[in-house]
Design brief:
homodimer, alpha/beta, elongated, DNA-binding, methyltransferase (chains A, B)
DNA sequence: AGATCACATGAATCACGAT
DNA sequence: TATCGTGATTCATGTGATC
């Protein structure tokens, strides 16, 4: 039975942490390629906790996860009053419309509660993803703004094959919305693999509208009778893009509405760690079985290419010391409009002011700022060379050392 | 002076309705093709009222308009420093006073007030459109749900040519969101021209994601010195699709944030009546002059504007997500001279450098540029397949999207 | 006349580490 | 915590000048 294979989140909430619920045959999941340091050992990594997500999150240590992906319940009329109404109120009205309208406050309370619990668990630079449709996403967006989250983007998942509108009364509802938010407006150091996404998009910035098919075919979990196990299983491609964009290998991703574990499956494949929380033992069991069959991609393919900003800093003085540029030499911009003289201390002199390559570059152009490395050029045999190429040579020699 | 040509909304609010503010030389605008019956004669049709939109709406008779289109302030939270492009030029951002709110609660209060005023003016089967971005749309959506509006769709305006993200810190913010809502859940008789939209969309249901260019070129209103008159003028194509979908000829469209009158211009062209409310006399004057130059299309030509097809740009990442190529797989050129490994983020790795299919293709050949789509091949059962064929398969699934 | 290039610009919550 | 110096960063489209 699924329930025998589960980790009880309530037990975890009482600090009686036990991972023995995971079947012994289950392999270790998602060995981290680059484990984050200082992670509390009490985190139930690569585990599916069964129980209420708010209690389970409140039992986790604060500031302990790098990313949250949440696919909360959308529909306010599911009749699952226990989940949607933390105040335990139950609406017996048969009138759907009244039910929906009356339940906004309780849905909002539930939303605020789980968003607050998630925020506590997030590291200062962690980010949160939430997916929803027009039924709930406005409630979610307002709540997370009210709680101090800082929205970075809203992302449109454009469905390749949406369900048509059968009655012809509306536009085909062909998309869902994801909100990507940092923990607060001050969280400037969040992870975003800008260059990787750009490189995977023909060297153009990745936009906020993503075209991805629904989860169908072999990817869709089915039971013995061929029925879908979960009504709203998300495509792995969607999760892959979010995790590639906003996490590093080894990062911990928390999913408080784990369902059948798409987040865990993708996290494991991409060398991330996961913590799943799921109320339904059947879903949790299906998720475990699914994730056990996933293999992590090779570490080499997961390595994050260093960004330009992360490369070692090279003083312009080093370029002179290395002999690429001589003191007393004249530098010009690419078109030869501006000139400055190289001083032996690594500063430039335009005849009036002495300063850094950046400062003098900005000055001669009358601009507030300038990247001197790409602005200034040397001339050798009538050919102009950007001084940034000398920096690259020095960096290459540093890499070998 | 603009202020001499305006209709004072405050005066209208005091029931001292006067349309003499409209210059005598101004032609009658937007003669209705099929006037709706029972319209109160006191409606200031095809007029721009100047003043506070809430007061002006409260002065209109209840249940009198067929549609509302609203482009409220977005409550953008601008950094103090402003934003510089990579070439150090400054972005002409929205920093107008009308977009400044002290806090979310004050924005929410404003939003609730104008939404409530609009709802009173709406006929029982009228619908409301609101456009916004992630800065404000969640507040708006929550507020209108709270007020009893019934959301029919959220629509994504995918911008053909959005402003890039200059700092590489986020996804390109390439869309805005429209909410389409009826006055209440009981409003079952709202107008929706399903068949017309389908007919104008190659016999496919019109989806909730619309691909439309920004308002630029001749359509963009400019002052004598070539500067844009309004910072956020919307494209007429966007308004045209909303009005064609949700109104009939002769219907009255109310725009409480009229700006430079895109709603009025499109309404007149399509044979709808309009009521514009605008706080700024300068904008109102520009709107009047603009609308005066519009001619109503003949009845026969009131067809759905043909949908602009999205340039079906496909990221190489999508090819991996779709399973055509696996992360970790090796790609070669047609003759098998060069090799590179596919990364899960859609980049290639030739063992030394990580980059896009184009960049690595160029690199291995020592060429300045390369079309990676036609250069790289997979090998299956000894047969080589160009990765461009996978792109074509994905494009086939994008038909209609 | 047509092609090419240089430049401008659009609702934007847009840096970061060392000292 | 604040200040300061380095130096990273853009896509589609329209307009007007130049070849």
């Amino acid at each position: 039975m699924a329930s025998q294979r589960t980790v009880a989140a309530d037990a975890f909430a009482r600090k009686q942490v036990s991972r023995t619920g995971r079947p012994a045959s289950s392999p270790r999941m998602g060995l981290p390629a680059q484990p984050s340091p200082l992670r509390p050992s009490s985190l139930p990594l690569d585990t599916v906790l069964v129980g209420d997500c708010i209690a389970a999150m409140n039992a986790l240590p604060a500031s302990s996860v790098d990313c949250v992906f949440a696919d909360p319940p959308y529909n306010l009329q599911l009749g699952d009053a226990g989940l949607l109404r933390p105040d335990q109120s139950r609406v017996d009205a048969v009138d759907d419309d009244w039910d929906k309208f009356a339940s906004f406050p309780s849905y909002d309370a539930f939303t605020r509660e789980w968003l607050a619990a998630a925020r506590r668990v997030m590291k200062p630079n962690a980010t949160l993803w939430v997916i929803g449709s027009y039924h709930n996403i406005f409630r979610v967006g307002s709540a997370l703004q009210d709680l101090g989250y800082w929205i970075l983007n809203d992302i449109v998942w454009r469905k390749a094959n949406p369900m048509p509108n059968f009655r012809g009364k509306r536009f085909t509802n062909a998309h869902e919305t994801l909100i990507w938010a940092s923990r607060s407006a001050e969280s400037k150091g969040y992870t975003f693999h800008y260059d990787a996404l750009k490189g995977g998009n023909e060297d153009l910035q990745m936009r906020s509208d993503w075209f991805i098919p629904l989860c169908t075919g072999d990817e869709r979990l089915k039971d013995d009778e061929g029925r879908k196990v979960h009504p709203t299983q998300k495509p792995e491609a969607l999760l892959a893009r979010t995790l590639l964009a906003a996490t590093n290998p080894g990062d911990v991703v928390l999913d408080p509405f784990f369902g059948t574990g798409t987040t865990g499956a993708v996290a494991k494949r991409l060398g991330r760690r996961f913590i799943g929380i799921e109320r339904d033992p059947g879903y949790a069991a299906a998720a475990r079985e699914r994730i056990a069959g996933i293999e992590t991609l090779s570490q080499a393919s997961l390595l994050v290419a260093p960004t330009k900003r992360a490369e070692p800093r090279v003083p312009f003085l080093s370029v002179i010391e290395a002999g690429h540029v001589r003191a007393g030499e004249t530098l010009t911009d690419e078109r030869g409009r501006f000139r400055a003289t190289v001083r032996p201390d690594g500063q430039l002199d335009n005849g009036l002011v002495i300063g850094s390559i950046h400062k003098i570059g900005a000055l001669v152009q009358g601009l507030p700022a300038c990247n001197g490395w790409t602005f200034w050029h040397t001339e050798r045999n009538g050919r102009k060379t950007c001084i940034d190429s000398f920096r690259n040579e020095i960096r290459a020699t540093m890499a070998g050392a």
